[in-house]
Design brief:
The complex is a heterodimer of chains A (122) and B (691).
Chain A lengths: L10 E2 L11 E11 L5 E5 L5 E6 L10 E8 L5 E8 L10 H13 L6 H4 L3
Parallel strand pairs in A: 1-2, 4-6
Antiparallel strand pairs in A: 2-3, 2-5, 3-4, 5-6
Chain B lengths: L8 H6 L7 E13 L2 E8 L3 E8 L4 H5 L8 E11 L5 E12 L1 H4 L7 E2 L20 H7 L23 H11 L5 H5 L9 H4 L32 H6 L37 E9 L3 E5 L2 E12 L2 E8 H7 L8 E11 L11 E13 L27 E11 L3 E4 L5 E10 L4 E8 H6 L7 E10 L5 E12 L4 H12 L7 E2 L17 H6 L9 E12 L5 E4 L10 E2 L5 E3 L4 E3 L3 E4 L1 E6 L4 E6 L1 H8 L3 H10 L1 H11 L3 E13 L2 E13 L2 H18 L1
Parallel strand pairs in B: 3-5, 3-6, 10-12, 16-18, 16-19, 27-29
Antiparallel strand pairs in B: 1-2, 1-4, 2-3, 4-5, 7-9, 7-11, 8-9, 9-10, 11-12, 13-15, 13-17, 14-15, 15-16, 17-18, 20-26, 20-28, 21-25, 22-23, 23-24, 26-27, 28-29
Helix pairs in contact in B: 14-15
Classes of the chains: A alpha/beta (122), B alpha+beta (691).
């Protein structure tokens, strides 16, 4: 998992989790519930489906709103996060997860026009 | 690769049996009327061809899109067999699908011959001229020239009529009855016929009287054929049948009505029908008085599983039906005039609308099961920007807030109440909806209810806003799934969403139709080359702004922007005003280069747009240029590589033998990423759909 940052990470939603088991992914969604331990939380994607994220270290801040999580998908479909970042919504423009989902579907439906995998070489 | 056609289907249809899901090959398609356009098809089942097919107008697009190529194979999912006055059949295709294209098939299947009613194939017993099952035949043979029209037979089983042929055959021969074939046809051939009902003088039980109101399952259906046995049928016979349906025989049986057809199938070419639907919108009685006279009317809309339609009652019918018809209740309605919908007053999607007349029948139906409460096509509030103004749409949203009632006086000096509500839906966008009159007065906005408005008018007031019309229906906390979803969403997260309202005093840019182009389109489409200038909007990034000569000294008088000449004596001369002034005004005239993914374009920005781009007034910039060079440069640096929405005017201009396409920026709007992204997604979908 070293250098997950350097590797192309397809953007996915909950429906695509099962196709990306043991692969690095980027998941964007809205924070639903944070577990009291702070080590796991759930996110909902643009289709409303929920995914679970697990962290190595517990959260040190309040997590809410739209968040982008980068990590590996475990066998059980849980995202083992290496890093996350909250998407800023303070400028009055909320993050439109549904619109993001539409774009996501397009990227996956037309891989010939969005050859991301090949792009990041070295 | 020839598909299997439903042999015998053409004959069955021509005989009046409404077989469904038949597979036929198209021989030809032709437009035969103009207003509205009607398309006639010549179809073959491999054995016979017939030109007696016409497609319902909702299928006209198949013709317009060239899908109806000769030799393609079609599946006729739903048909209506009408009988014309002269006995011929006209099959109206209500729903069909092209299952094999002309290219795939490439040739005529089988060796069909034109179907001719005289060709009675031996499917009939004896096949003699009076084979009864198809009344048309009977009619023809007995030279009955009148026919009435309706034979709704959508999904009758395709059992060939011959099951009971014998009886009928013999019976008819002797009878010579000008039976209203409608009822006959509504007899599914599967009736095991028996001589009884046919008997002339048999004890004709009452159901026969209002034969058309006899459900198909009653074996005594054929009663009406009896010439003189029952009063009603005779009344119903003869010409003009279409006007006076036998149902109106005084004692219209209040019981189970005749075949109920869906609202979507109503059309003026069919006079015998009944619909079972719920009243969704009942208006008040209104009176009018004009040069042609005066009168009163009221209207209401009905809905069933298939659709909705508007019904109007005038004068006498108002008295008769106004108190009977109640909003929310389900009724059996039959016998009314169908005509093309007047889109000026009718905002429903049905092509036709109904007018009640003296013989119309509206009977309360106790069992409203299956009939929807209302039919709405809700438009997400975020999409309202994309819709054209003045369209009638349905919306549903949470009423976040409602203003108090205000009373205003209209142009006609009427005082009317008004209330503005803020509606928000899951798109996060908010729009202001205005209620008027009684609706405004009785509206209760407490508790942030879910409000659904059906038939509201979209206006570009304040960008985008909605106005309830006289004909709109306002529902508060309606019992529909969309409302529950909204409530759940709102309670969960919606209440916290920072919403954006579409209704603000914002410049027209948000609501008006924008002609979106990319910079490469300017060249590829040769924009500006025509007589008049072209206007377009685009998303672009500033990549260069010319600092030199961006400012000029202009005449200080308002409205005159002409460059003044420095007289070097403290005075500045304006040639246009023909005056000298002791001062000048700095004005901006910017030359900038914009770029997008495809191309770049030099544009000119005058004072107003230049100030928006640079974020400073011309005066300030003038000062900076004189006093603080660095700060002056910084302004330009900061403006560089900013992305905005540009509204432009492009025109080919000629100056001393040289022609150049000049682009002027008329307005600069802040970049709206969501809007842009939505547009791109929509464009991609459009492209992939047509691919």
């Amino acid at each position: 998992m070293a250098n997950i940052i350097d590797v192309p990470k397809p953007r996915i939603n909950s429906s695509m989790l099962s196709q990306h088991i043991n692969r690095p992914v980027c998941f964007v969604g809205r924070v639903e519930k944070v577990h009291p331990t702070g080590k796991t939380f759930t996110v909902s994607d643009g289709e409303g489906k929920v995914a679970t994220v697990e962290l190595n270290d517990p959260l040190e801040e309040e997590l809410s709103g739209a968040v982008e999580v980068i990590g590996m998908v475990s066998n059980k479909g849980v995202i083992m996060a290496t890093t996350y970042n909250m998407l800023r919504e303070d400028k009055g423009i909320p993050f439109d997860v549904q619109l993001y989902n539409e774009a996501l579907k397009i990227i996956h439906d037309f891989p010939q026009h969005y050859p991301f995998e090949g792009a990041a070489s070295g | 690769m020839s598909a299997r056609l439903t042999e015998g289907a053409v004959e069955a249809l021509m005989k009046g049996t409404g077989v469904s899901n038949t597979v036929l090959q198209l021989m030809n398609a032709k437009q035969i009327a103009n207003n509205p356009p009607r398309i006639r098809l010549i179809l073959s089942d491999g054995v016979h061809t017939s030109a007696s097919f016409i497609i319902a107008t909702q299928l006209n697009h198949l013709f317009n899109e060239d899908q109806l190529e000769p030799y393609c194979v079609c599946l006729l999912k739903k048909v209506l067999v009408n009988t014309l006055k002269d006995g011929r059949r006209a099959v109206v295709v209500m729903d069909m699908e092209i299952i094999k294209s002309a290219e795939e098939v490439g040739e005529k299947i089988g060796d069909p011959v034109p179907y001719n009613s005289d060709n009675k194939p031996s499917s009939q017993e004896g096949g003699d001229s009076n084979s009864p099952p198809s009344t048309s035949e009977v009619e023809k043979d007995n030279s009955f020239s009148w026919k009435n029209n309706t034979t709704p037979q959508k999904h009758l089983p395709s059992t060939p009529p011959s099951t009971s042929s014998d009886h009928r055959k013999s019976f008819f021969k002797s009878n010579n009855t000008p039976s209203p074939q409608k009822s006959f046809l509504s007899t599914p051939p599967s009736t095991s016929s028996r001589p009884g009902p046919y008997n002339k003088n048999s004890n004709t039980p009452s159901p026969q009287k209002s034969f058309s109101s006899t459900p198909p399952s009653t074996p005594t259906r054929p009663g009406p054929y009896n010439k003189n046995s029952t009063p009603s049928p005779s009344k119903g016979r003869g010409r003009g049948f279409a006007g006076k349906s036998p149902m109106k025989t005084g004692d219209t049986s209040p019981g189970p009505p005749a075949k109920v057809i869906p609202i979507s199938a109503l059309n003026p070419y069919q006079s015998k029908w009944t619909v079972r639907a719920r009243v969704t919108n009942k208006s008040k009685v209104r009176t009018w008085s004009n040069s042609k006279g005066e009168g009163k009317l009221f209207s209401f809309e009905i809905v069933d599983e298939s659709g909705e339609i508007k019904i109007t009652a005038f004068n006498n019918e108002v008295d008769k039906f106004f108190s009977l018809v109640e909003q929310g209740k389900v009724y059996f309605i039959s016998k009314a005039t169908l005509k093309a919908a007047n889109k000026q007053f009718n905002t429903l999607k049905h092509e036709y609308e109904m007018t009640l007349h003296g013989h119309s029948s509206i009977v309360l139906c106790d069992d409203g099961e299956g009939v929807p409460d209302i039919h709405c096509d809700f438009v997400p509030i975020s999409e309202l920007e994309q819709r054209e103004k003045d369209t009638i749409i349905d919306v549903i949203g949470v009423c976040k807030s409602a203003e108090d009632i205000s009373r205003i006086t209209t142009k006609t000096s009427r005082e009317v109440s008004k209330r503005a509500l803020s509606l928000m839906d899951m798109s996060g966008k908010v729009v202001t909806a205005t209620l008027w009159g009684e609706e405004a007065e009785k509206f209760d906005g407490s508790g942030q209810p879910i409000v659904a408005i059906k038939g509201a008018r979209l206006s570009d007031f304040g960008g985008r806003s909605l106005s309830a019309l006289f004909s709109s229906t306002i529902l508060v906390n309606p019992d529909i799934p969309a409302a529950f979803r909204l409530r759940a969403w709102f309670d969960r997260e919606g209440h916290a969403v920072d919403s954006q309202s579409l209704t603000e005093a914002r410049p027209v840019g948000s609501g008006a139709r924008m002609n979106w182009k990319t910079l490469s389109d300017v060249k590829t489409e040769h924009m500006g080359h025509r007589e008049k200038a072209d206007y377009f909007s685009c998303v672009a990034t500033v990549v260069y702004i010319r600092k030199e000569n961006c400012l000029y000294q202009a005449c200080p008088s308002s409205d005159c922007n002409k460059k003044v000449l420095d007289q070097h004596n403290g005075l500045y001369r304006c040639e246009k005003c023909n005056r000298d002034y002791p001062n000048f005004q700095y004005r901006l005239l910017l030359s900038a280069n914009l770029a997008d993914f495809g191309d770049n374009q030099w544009v000119t920005c005058f004072q107003e747009t230049a100030e928006v781009l640079l974020g400073h007034s011309a005066e300030r910039l003038g000062q900076l240029r004189e006093t603080d060079e660095e700060a002056f440069e910084l302004v330009f640096q900061k403006a560089n590589f900013t992305t905005h929405i540009f509204k432009n005017r492009v025109k080919l201009e000629t100056y001393n033998d040289e022609s150049r396409v000049k682009v002027t920026v008329l307005e600069i709007l802040p970049m709206d990423h969501r809007d842009y992204a939505r547009r791109l997604v929509a464009n991609i979908h459009k492209m992939s759909d047509s691919a």
